[in-house]
Amino acid sequence: MLTAILLLAVTQLGMTYHTNDQYVPIRVQNGDTIWQIASVAADNKTDVRSVVNDIIETNHLNHDQQIYPGQTLQIPVTASRADTVRQTFAAP
């Protein structure tokens, strides 16, 4: 019973295990924001705020830390979004 309660609590908090995550490295360009990057990385079933948190955690950033041009970030994405992220953030 305790296991069932714990499982229910975890799923209600939105904590799910993503089995098909990939990490796409991108180089931050002038004007890029974590929100913008997350908006591209999120699929239509994923809350952008969750992707923002994943990017922050993956790259060991603080929530108030700024990103800067030239910085390389690892972007966690589902397999279906990896090419879109690569194409959108390809260096000009």
TrEMBL record:
SUPFAM superfamilies: LysM domain (SSF54106). SMART domains: LysM. PROSITE patterns: LYSM. Residues 24-75 form the LysM domain. Pfam families: LysM. Gene3D superfamilies: LysM domain (3.10.350.10). InterPro entries: LysM, LysM_dom_sf. This is LysM peptidoglycan-binding domain-containing protein.
